[in-house]
Structures are given as structure tokens and as C-alpha cells.
């Protein structure tokens, strides 16, 4: 768990630095940083989607995942619940920043492969690299949305810790196909978040979050029942 702890600490440290910068930053600089983060999220989302879709063994799975996950998320209304919770502590646009931060930190090959490599091979290279990248990203996000971005560190710790423990218990469960499908769906969610930050259209990205649970369930069913897919 050393790599995950390092990743979490880097996010908190970066958020602290960015939060200090925000206090003395003029509105026009905050606005340009918002645009920069929006474009960065769009670029990362497109890259994740286009890079992994060609190697997918289940090319329509991401469509099914988004549809089913979206219906589940909308029925629970995760977006509204999350915004109401965050607004109790902040009246700014922190909710938008936090949802973006969580997606950027959690949905990526390094954040998924890192805990797996740490659990199976005691190799922390991916997690240490990811921690440095997340630390830099958190500086930019916190300088735009405030120190509250540090709350995403809790989600990152839980996410990576769960993958680490799961990989320890079931060494063959997190195979390449599963990581590939999760990354494709995650790429769409990051793209959606980026477009929302840019103000092009406000998408209910958090209501699509359950989509990430569909690929593991479907792939597990395929392998258990030996379905010809």
C-alpha cells in the first residue's frame, strides 16, 4: 500500500499548494485555468477512448455500460446528491472540480495498473509516477477550485486500496481485457467532465459513474459461463 499512500499524500500536498495560490489569484487567471483544465480533461478523455477502443474484444460493451450505468445513476440521482453534499461545505463550484478530480485521478491505466502491479509484483513504479502526476494536477485544480480538491484523496485511497486488495485475493481477476474496458468507459466520462468545465454543455457525468461497474460484471459472467464472445 506504500504507492497508494504516496499517491494520496501528493494529492493533499498539491491541493494545499494550489489552495494557497488561489487566494492571491485574479479572476481572469482563474478563468483561464478553468479553460486549461477543461481542455486537458477533453484531451485525456479522447486519448483514453481512442487508444483502448481498437484493442477491445467487446467493442459495444462501453455503449451498453453507459446506457445501463446512466439509468442506474439517474434513478439514484448521484449528481444531485453529490452536489448537495458538497454545497453544505462550499458555495463555490467545488462540486464540479471534485467530480473532475476524482475522474482524472481514478480513471487511468496508471491508477488501475499501479495497485495491481504493487499487489502481484511489489512494483510501485506506476503508483509513484501516478502520484507525481496527480500532485501536479491537484495544484492546478486547487488553484482553480480551492483546497477542497484534497477531499478527492479519500476517494483515490479507497479506489486504489480496493483494487490492491482485490488483486491480492484474486490474482487473475484484473486481466488486460477488464482494465481496457474500464478505461474506455472512463475516457468517455472524463471527456464529459471536460466539456462541462468548458461550459459547452452541462452533462450529468456523476450519474454515469455506475457505468464503470458494468464491464467487470459482464466480463465475469462471460468467463464464468463460458459465453462465446
UniProtKB/TrEMBL annotation:
Domain of life where this protein originates: Bacteria
Keyword Membrane: yes
Name by which UniProt lists this protein: DUF554 domain-containing protein
Transmembrane intervals: 6-21, 33-53, 59-80, 101-120, 140-166, 178-200, 206-227
Keyword Lyase: no
Keyword set, alphabetical order: Membrane, Transmembrane, Transmembrane helix
Organism: Bacillus halotolerans
Amino acid at each position: 500500500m506504500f504507492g497508494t499512500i504516496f499517491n494520496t499524500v501528493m494529492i493533499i500536498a498539491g491541493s494545499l499548494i494550489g489552495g494557497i495560490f488561489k487566494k492571491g489569484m485574479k479572476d481572469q487567471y482563474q478563468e483561464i485555468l478553468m479553460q486549461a483544465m477543461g481542455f486537458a480533461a477533453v484531451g485525456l478523455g479522447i486519448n483514453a477512448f481512442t487508444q483502448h477502443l481498437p484493442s477491445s474484444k467487446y467493442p459495444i460493451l462501453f455503449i451498453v455500460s453507459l446506457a445501463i450505468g446512466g439509468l442506474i445513476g439517474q434513478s439514484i440521482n448521484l449528481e444531485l446528491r453529490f452536489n448537495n453534499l458538497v454545497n453544505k461545505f462550499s458555495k463555490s463550484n467545488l462540486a464540479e472540480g471534485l467530480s473532475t478530480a476524482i475522474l482524472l485521478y481514478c480513471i487511468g491505466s496508471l491508477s488501475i495498473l499501479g495497485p495491481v502491479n504493487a499487489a502481484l509484483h511489489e512494483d510501485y513504479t506506476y503508483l509513484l509516477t501516478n502520484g507525481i502526476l496527480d500532485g501536479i494536477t491537484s495544484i492546478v485544480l486547487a488553484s482553480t477550485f480551492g483546497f477542497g480538491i484534497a477531499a478527492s484523496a479519500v476517494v483515490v485511497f479507497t479506489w486504489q486500496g480496493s483494487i490492491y486488495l482485490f488483486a491480492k485475493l484474486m490474482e487473475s481477476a484484473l486481466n488486460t481485457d477488464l482494465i481496457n474496458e474500464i478505461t474506455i468507459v472512463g475516457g468517455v466520462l472524463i471527456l464529459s467532465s471536460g466539456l462541462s468545465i468548458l461550459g459547452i454543455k452541462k452533462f450529468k457525468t456523476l450519474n454515469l459513474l455506475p457505468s464503470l461497474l458494468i464491464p467487470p460484471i459482464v466480463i465475469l459472467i462471460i468467463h464464468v459461463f463460458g459465453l462465446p464472445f
